[in-house]
Design brief:
The chain has 164 residues and is of the alpha+beta class. It has helices at 17-34, 39-46, 48-53, 100-114, 129-137, and strands spanning 2-3, 10-13, 58-63, 70-79, 83-91, 119-124, 140-142, 159-163. It has an eight-stranded mixed sheet with strand order 1-2-3-4-5-6-8-7. The longest helix has 18 residues, at 17-34. It starts with a strand and ends with a strand. Residues 1-6 have low confidence and may be disordered.
């Protein structure tokens, strides 16, 4: 899967250990800076092929044009009943403010549809106001915790949203 919005980056599905390493590093940076990297974070980030792709999800990686270094990423975690979670979205600090996050969200929505997803949700935190604004602009709206398809969701997620 490749997504080219004629924008500042090229987005494609995770394809190599280098992509997996970038997924870990990009997410570890912001999670560790703002929160605590939890055991589940380490498990998912440390094995995206086994924990995400093998389960029917995907990881999208944004690169500088010409297959340059990864500057952003987002995961789609698969749940039963064709439900997906938009998760682990990160944009390198040097690439922020260039629309990379917006392109990643759009690519993730398109990819969830291509995977026959019927529902797309996410969890975020009030500390991430720019991300919340980005999700709202993409059509996500607030939901309550009882709407989640999982009971032991991240403690740091105090904002829950679903694409409408």
């Amino acid at each position: 899967m490749s997504y080219d919005a004629s924008g500042p980056v090229e987005i494609s599905s995770i394809a190599s250990q280098s992509d997996a390493d970038a997924f870990y590093v990009l997410n570890e940076e912001w999670i560790s800076r703002l929160f605590t990297l939890e055991g589940e974070d380490r498990a998912v980030l440390g094995d995206p092929f086994g924990r995400i792709v093998a389960s029917g999800g995907d990881v999208l990686v944004a690169r500088e044009p010409g297959r340059g270094a990864a500057v952003g990423c987002v995961a789609l975690l698969a749940y039963p009943d064709d439900v997906f979670e938009l998760a682990k979205m990160a944009v390198a600090p040097a690439a922020q403010g260039r629309g990379v996050g917006r392109l990643l969200v759009a690519a993730a929505v398109d990819r969830a549809k291509a995977l026959a997803g019927t529902r797309l949700f996410l969890g975020t935190n009030t500390k991430l106001a720019p991300a919340i604004h980005l999700y709202e602009n993409a059509g996500f709206v607030g939901i309550t915790r009882d709407r989640l398809p999982v009971s032991d969701y991240y403690a740091r997620a105090d904002v829950l949203m679903e694409l409408m």
